[in-house]
Design a protein that fits this description.
heterodimer, A: alpha+beta, Rossmann fold, OB fold (Dihydrolipoamide Acetyltransferase, E2P), 2 domains, six-stranded mixed sheet, 20 strands, 26% helix, B: alpha/beta, MetI-like fold, D-Maltodextrin-Binding Protein, domain 2, 4 domains, three-stranded parallel sheet, 8% strand
């Protein structure tokens, strides 16, 4: 596969505050790549740089090998689906989709043909003469996609396009977007703060935080082999505890020594240890590698979410077995469920469920959606 | 509770619309009166369309409003976009506030400050005439601008910020994005702003009053200046028409509101579809809009060119400044003196002349305007005491009577009057005296003698007194034989005693209301000028029979034609004055104004005497034996400021007690 876009050592700051700090990223033809991160991590800015709405303070943007730092948006072979769609209210559905073609002075017959084709693809046949303001959120979303694709760009930028849709519709659209990407073969650069969305749709995920790229990899890579505490915490749920790598394949944490599958660390090197909640088995107290007291149990539908206090550190465990609050239980962890990471700036910031609460989580989610 | 709110709503609508309904009804009144509806008639509408002076001001007003609205809309929209795009929050909110200030600023302050600026600027650059159509236009654009910004800016803020980005993303240049996406989005706000600007400009009086120059008069100023007499009913007709035009504009602007317009567009589309036609190609639509826009712009441009060439291209201009309704203007089949003068002049001298005829509402207004030095007039017609003051301040030029041979027709009685004892600066135009008007159906003619009628216990609560200190004190002083120009304060105290005594007999203190009250029989006794008596008698209700007589001692006024020192063409001004004294125009003016003329070509003319009738002649032209002495003894003169203050304090005691 060919590289279509390359970002080389990009930095960008607003009012002296660094938003992007030395970002380098290669994007390949035909790929569905997702920029994932919390609000303020620089993902939208990265997208706007590619779209041409911002210029980098330093570094280069290459498109098909050519530097495009100073090329204005209307001359880039890139189209954007905006977060709130940005449909033109004074034009009807047909005219919205025809807009880029009229700009390019495409012959009229061809416009009609291509617009109809696009509307058929997004299942909006028969809506041609409707006013865009009379459409539902999902329909507007499809118009926006049709409008962005009708000009056959090489790259489509999507800025949290599903954020405003309700859950059910969002799932459908995720599938649909994936299908469209496969059918058209256009590179999709997708921005989201929703890790589930990212995991289910992407070929490649770029995890960003505080203006830096933390990890680039496939969905499986970033979930199973997170590079640091931030990635481990942001993608899925993680118990992250301080440990010491005694030697290859032997790690000690929480006062116990565990066999594991990782290696390549120095002897007695302090490390971060990640254990996913679903990888912990609950056993009888005397059979556990670790023991603790259950402090809370929440029914989540598919499983229970159990918080266990182990020597003052709160672990989260997802289990289908029922346990009671205040019960003393034992925990058993398979060697391949233990993931070892090098210490990083994020060490100690994440992975303890002492202050965990579902409500708080949702609150911060809602805030981040509002900001971007 | 529900009922109460219904009643409140009803009352609110009553307050809002009752005046309009009355205006509408009386615009169709057969008679001149505001108290009696004597039958449906389109007379005043016909009258209106014959009144060239008024139509001229209507045209001026519309040209001005269109230009002001057009320019302020373009500038305001650009400014709103500029403010919106500003990066700094502080700068943005500061600008927001700054643009709002002119809106909350009282008009009077805006008006005065603009005038000062124009005068200052023109002195700086050495222009003779600082005020003109252009200054008026600038002033109007200035006060319209904030309203346009106020409409457009919120719309911009509401607009999705990514709209222009989306347009650029889809292939538009930044300019293209503005034209094709932002502008159509802003259109409803822009149109609303434009209509607001248009209506604001249309009815602005205060600012226009201060910033307009010679020869360009707007409708509100003209109506205001009609107060020398009453506002004529053809103004009701005009006001009615304007009201409906504005209403139509308002409805139109509501239609451009997005929802409504969408419904309208949908309906139109359905109609087209029903007729089996395809929906209109949006490009064709755009052509239509663009065409419409171009037409509108062309109209504005044409109007401007028209206005400018109208005022600038002609070599000879004569600026006349007179009271409202104080010259025969062609209405009701009369002679249009200004038009006739232009025609006569061209015939006589082979060159065209254009008369810019402007009106004022009071001597003080005229004086203020002239003493600012911001305008230039060639002929003015002030009253006696003002002439005395202006001579004293070197504001008048001595006349060259070789150019005014018709001066010989001015009766001897009107020479050597106190205000111009050497007959150097003025040519009398009209005169009149204050008399007592009474309703003969109520007042015993035997009581109708001297000023005592106004103090007669029999008519307690039926007497109308002037609501103005000088005139009210005058009635008491004439009655008591006191000199109305005395500087002896104890004499003024005596007059106050008399007025206090009269107070309980007085129905109300009135100025212009006197017309309607006397016409309708709401008052039985009032003092006013002879010329005005005829206006009242003309419109009196069937149950009212108004009569008039002069007390022995009474006030006189003489209005005379003068040339102010700012005159640009003195010889032309003298030719105009001479023309005004010639037979035909002099008679036409006398018939039109209903005031007496000092010109023997008028008062000895058989046709004029026939036309006026014997009774009217008796009243208008009482025995003039010893007029000059009488006049010099009894007419009001300028009093010094301290005394005037003292009189005002006395007057307030009367009004407060």
């Amino acid at each position: 596969m060919d590289k279509i876009i390359e970002l080389k050592n990009i930095t960008k700051s607003y009012d002296g505050e660094a938003v992007l700090d030395d970002i380098s990223l290669d994007i390949y033809d035909n790929e569905f790549i997702t920029l994932l991160g919390p609000s303020g991590c620089g993902k939208t800015t990265t997208l706007r740089l590619i779209g041409g709405f911002e210029t980098p303070d330093s570094g280069d943007i290459l498109f098909g090998g050519e530097r495009i730092n100073d090329v204005p948006p209307h001359k880039r072979n890139v189209n954007t689906v905006f977060q709130r769609y940005a449909l033109f209210p004074h034009l009807n559905v047909f005219e919205n989709v025809a807009f880029p073609l009229r700009e390019r002075k495409v012959p009229r017959d061809e416009i009609t043909e291509r617009v109809n084709e696009m509307l058929a693809m997004v299942a909006l046949k028969g809506f041609e003469h409707r006013s865009v303001t009379s459409l539902s959120g999902g329909q507007q979303q499809r118009v926006a996609i049709a409008r962005a694709l009708v000009g056959k760009p090489r790259v489509l930028l999507l800025d949290e396009p599903l954020a405003a849709l309700d859950l059910k519709l969002r799932k459908d659209m995720q599938q649909e977007l994936k299908n469209i990407q496969k059918a058209t073969g256009i590179t999709f650069i997708f921005v989201t703060h929703d890790q589930e969305e990212a995991l289910s749709m992407s070929d490649t995920i770029v995890v960003m935080s505080e203006g830096r790229i933390q990890q680039i990899g496939t969905s499986q890579d970033v979930y199973n082999e997170p590079k640091n505490a931030f990635v481990a915490d942001f993608i899925g749920e993680s118990n992250i505890v301080d440990g010491v790598m005694l030697r290859d394949k032997l790690v000690s944490f929480s006062g116990h020594t565990f066999p594991c599958v990782d290696g390549g660390f120095g002897a007695n090197e302090p490390v971060d240890v990640v254990v996913r909640p679903e990888d912990v088995d609950i056993v009888a107290e005397d059979k556990g590698m670790l023991t603790g007291v259950v402090t809370s149990v929440t029914f989540m539908g598919v499983h229970y979410e159990v918080i266990v206090d182990i020597g003052g550190f709160k672990w989260m465990i997802q289990t289908t077995d029922f346990v009671d609050v205040d019960e003393r239980i034992g925990l058993y962890i398979e060697p391949d469920a233990i993931h070892i990471m090098k210490k990083s700036e994020f060490s100690g910031l994440y992975g303890d469920y002492a202050s965990f609460s579902n409500e708080f989580d949702e609150l911060s989610d809602a805030e981040s959606e509002g900001e971007e | 509770m529900k009922r109460a709110s219904k009643i409140f709503t009803f009352l609110m609508f009553l307050f809002l619309f009752a005046p309009l309904v009355i205006l509408l009804v009386f615009s169709f009144n057969e008679a001149r009166s505001l108290s009696v509806f004597s039958g449906f008639s389109l007379k005043w509408y016909k009258e209106l369309f014959r009144d060239t002076e008024t139509l001229n001001t209507v045209r001026n007003t519309i040209i001005l409003a269109v230009c002001a609205a057009g320019v302020s809309t373009v500038m305001g929209t650009a400014a709103a976009v500029g403010i919106h795009r500003m990066r700094s929050k502080y700068l943005r909110s500061a600008l927001d506030m700054v643009t709002n200030i002119p809106m909350i600023n009282p008009d009077i302050i805006t008006g005065i400050s603009m005038m000062l600026m124009f005068v200052f600027a023109s002195r700086l650059f050495g222009f003779a005439n600082s005020l003109s159509f252009i200054t008026l236009l600038i002033a109007h654009i200035t006060f319209c601008l904030p309203y346009v910004i106020l409409q457009v800016l919120p719309r911009l803020r509401q607009m999705d910020k990514s709209l222009p980005e989306a347009a650029m993303d889809l292939g538009c240049t930044p300019w293209g994005a503005f034209w094709k996406v932002e502008l159509p989005e802003l259109m409803p706000a822009i149109v609303t702003g434009m209509i607001m600007a248009f209506t604001l400009s249309l009815d602005d009086f205060v600012i226009s009053y201060f910033t307009t120059g010679t020869g360009f008069q707007t409708l509100p100023i003209r109506i205001y200046n009609m107060t020398k007499k009453t506002v004529t009913p053809d103004m009701y007709a005009l006001a009615t028409i304007i009201f409906f035009v504005i209403l139509a504009l308002l409805l139109l602007s509501n239609l451009t509101d997005s929802e409504d317009s969408q419904r309208l567009r949908a309906a139109r589309k359905a109609k087209r579809a029903a007729k089996g036609r395809p929906p209109m190609d949006p490009r064709k639509q755009r052509f239509l809009y663009a065409g419409g826009g171009c037409l509108a712009l062309a109209a504005v441009a044409a109007a401007v060119v028209f206005a400018v060439t109208e005022t600038d291209n002609k070599p000879q201009v004569l600026n006349v400044y007179n009271w409202g309704e104080y010259i025969s203007d062609g209405s009701e089949g009369s002679m249009d003196v200004v038009k006739e003068f232009e025609a006569w002049y061209k015939e006589e001298y082979g060159r065209p002349v254009q008369v810019n005829y402007t009106t004022f509402a009071s001597n003080e207004d005229m004086y203020a305007k002239l003493s600012q030095g911001a305008v230039s007039y060639d002929v003015i017609i002030p009253s006696d005491y003002m002439i005395e003051r202006m001579i004293g301040e070197d504001m008048l030029l001595p006349l060259d009577f070789d150019n005014i041979p018709n001066y010989e027709h001015i009766a001897d009685n009107f020479r050597g009057l106190y205000y111009d004892p050497e007959n150097v600066y003025s040519v009398p135009y009209t005169y009149s005296m204050v008399g007592v008007i009474y309703n003969a159906n109520e007042v015993d003619p035997a009581d109708a003698v001297g000023w005592d009628l106004m103090w007669n216990e029999k008519y307690a609560g039926r007497i109308l007194q002037f609501n103005n200190s000088r005139d009210a004190f005058g009635t008491a002083m004439y009655r008591a034989g006191i000199d109305v120009n005395t500087t002896d304060r104890t004499q003024w105290d005596r007059a106050l005693e008399a007025l206090l005594e009269q107070r309980r007999l007085v129905k109300s203190y009135v100025m212009d209301e006197v017309y309607n009250m006397m016409e309708a029989g709401e008052g039985a006794v009032a003092a006013y000028y002879a010329g005005d008596y005829f206006t009242m008698a003309d419109a009196q209700a069937p149950s009212v029979d108004l009569r008039f007589y002069y007390p022995e001692a009474t006030n006189y006024f003489v209005d005379a034609m003068c040339i102010p020192s700012c005159c640009q063409n003195k010889e032309l001004a003298e030719i105009f004055i001479n023309y005004m004294l010639s037979e035909e125009p002099a008679i036409a003016n006398a018939e039109y104004t209903w005031y007496a003329s000092p010109n023997d070509l008028v008062y000895t003319n058989e046709d004029y005497i026939d036309e006026m009738g014997e009774d009217a002649m008796d009243i208008l032209y009482p025995d003039l034996e010893g007029f000059a002495d009488h006049y010099n003894a009894y007419a009001y003169r300028n009093l010094d400021g301290e005394l005037l203050d003292y009189i005002n304090t006395l007057w307030e005691t009367l009004k407060i007690n």
